[in-house]
Task: structure prediction
Amino acid sequence: MPDLAKGKLAVEIRALTKRFGDFVAVNKVTLSVPQGEIFGFLGPNGAGKSTTIRILCGLLDPTEGEASVAGFDVRTQSEDIKRHIGYMSQKFSLYDDLTVGENIDFFSGIYGVAKARRAERKEYVLRMAGLTEKVDQMTRLLAGGWKQRLALGCAILHEPPVLFLDEPTSGVDPIARRSFWELIYQLSAAGQTIFVSTHYMDEAEYCHRLALMYQGRVVALGTPEELKHSLDSHHLFEVEPADLLGAMDTLTGVKGLSEVAVFGSGLHVTATSDIDGETVIRSALSRAGLDANGLRRIHPSMEDVFVGVIEEEDRLRKEREGAVSK
Amino acid sequence: MIQAIQLTRRFDKLTAVDHVNFEVQKGEIVGLVGPDGAGKTTTMRMLAGMMDPTEGEILIAGRKSKDDPDWVKDQIGYMAQRFGLYQDLTVDENMIFYSDLFGIQGHERDRLMLEYLQMTRMEPFRKRPAGKLSGGMKQKLALMCTLLHRPQILFLDEPTNGVDPVSRRDFWAILYRLVKDGLTVLVSTAYLDEAERCNRVGLMSQGRLIAMDTPRAVKQMLPERCYEVRARDQRGTREALSRVAGVLSAEASGGVLHVFAEPSISPESLIAPFEGATIQPISPSLEDVFIAMMRREERHNAHA
Result:
C-alpha cells in the first residue's frame, strides 16, 4: 500500500470554490482530514457535498482554491489521485449479469491490481464482505445489502489509502447498514481514511468528525459530541400532554418557540435560549386549559443539531439581506 | 379506520405476509418498520386495495374491502416509493393531471390546489417542472397529488427515502397538520428515528408483525438488558458474544457493540474473556430493540 506517514493529512482543502455560471456550488471550503479518520459529510441535497467529493476524486476542476488527496494535487495530479482513492457512489456500478467473482475480477483489471496479487486481493475482499459462499452467484440476485458490500469490496481492491463514499447506504435496511458500518470501522482501524456523505443521522454519530455543509459552505465542523454541545442557542424540551394535537396548535407560533413537532406520544419543542423555555411552555399550555405532563429538557439529537444549524444560517442570512435592503 | 384481520399473502411458496392483525384509529399515524422483504409494501398494497389477500380480511372505515372495493378506493390515498410524477410537466400541470384522473374539477380543484400549495409552501414553484424539483419538493408534490381526491386514509410507502433531515421534518409537520384535520396515516419507513415520530409503530419481520405499540413501550418490551461494549477486536468479540447462552444479540453500532443479555448474566462476566474490553449499561434506541427482536425471531424460527 502506498502508505502515508502516520499523522499525515489524507485530505487537505483550502478555500476551495466551484462555480457553475453564476451559481456557487462550493464556497471557500477549508478543512482537513487526518489519515485513518472516518469523516462524515452532511447537508441537505444541493448543499455542495457531491460536488466537493467529485473535485477531491479528480473528476471536476475547482474554480479557485487548493485541494490535495493522499498528498496529490487535484489540479495537476488527478491521474495519481485516481489510483490512490476508492470511490463508491449511491448508484454503484456493478455488472448485474456477472457473478460476484467476475465483478471482482473485472474491477481488479480496471484498477490495475498487479496480476500476482489479484488472487490474494479477491480472497481478502470476499472474506471482508462475507461473500465467500456467494462467489458464483449472479450479482442481480443479491439482496441490496450484499450488493452494497460487494460494491465497497470492488472499490478497495487496489488498496486505496483514501475512500470516498457518496451516500453508500441510501435505501438499505437498518441491519444491512449496521454491518456495512462495521466494515467501515475495520478499514479505518487498518489505517484507511473514509470520507462519507449520508442523510442518516445515526450514521453521522458513527463518524469520528463531521462537517455540515449548507449552500456551498461548511457551517459546522467537529466531533458528534462537540456539535451536540454547540447547539446552545436553542434548548429542547419534551412534553406529553393528553391532547397532543391541541397542544401542538397552542405552542406553534408562541414567541421564542421555534419548532414544535410530534414524536411518538409526545411533543419536542425547541425554544431559543434567551427565554425560560420551561415557563413559557407551561404557561402557554395552562392558558389553553391543557396539561404539561412530563415537561422536561432533553438532549438534542444529531438531527436537532442539523436542523438547528441550518435554521440559524437562514435567520442570519435574512438579517443580512434585511440590513442591505435598508 | 383500518383493520387487518389474519391478513395473509402468498406468492407461490413464499408467504410475504403471514396472518397479520392490527388496527389503526382515526387520527393516528402508525408506522411499519422492517428490513427489505419483511412484507411492509405487500401489506400496504393489500390495505390500499391494489392487491388481493390470499387469506384474511380488511376493513376500511368499518366496511369490508372486498364487498365495496370502489367505495373503499375513494376513502384512501396511496403514495408509492416511486410516485408517478411527470418530470417534464410543471407542479401545476401534475396536479391538474391527477385532479382530472380523480374527476375533481373547476372551483373545487382550484381551491384544493391552492390550499395544498400554501400548506406545503410550494406556491412559489407552481411553474417549475417536476424534474427540476429537489427530492423533498418532489415528495411534497407527490403528497399533494395523492390528497387531491380528499381521502380519509393515507398510505405512504417509504416516503422520505434519500430525503435530507430538514425536508423530512417539513414533511412530517405537514402530515401532522393533515392528521389534525382528521386524516389517518399508515407509513412504512426504513428510518428508525423517523418511526419515533409515529404515534404507534409496528415491527415486521419475515411477513409477521412481531410487535406494535408506542415507540416508548416498544423500547421497554425486551426483558433483556442492553449494554455498550468496547473491545479491541470488535468483530471477533461480537461473534464470540453472539454464541454466549443468554445473549440475545450483539450488534455493531459504529465503533462499539450493543449487546442484549438476560438480567441474570453479570456484565463483568460477559466481557471477562476479552482483554481490555469495557462494558456499561445503556438505554437502547428503537433501532437496537428492533434488531434484537429480529434476532429473537430468527432463533425462534431456527428452533421451530
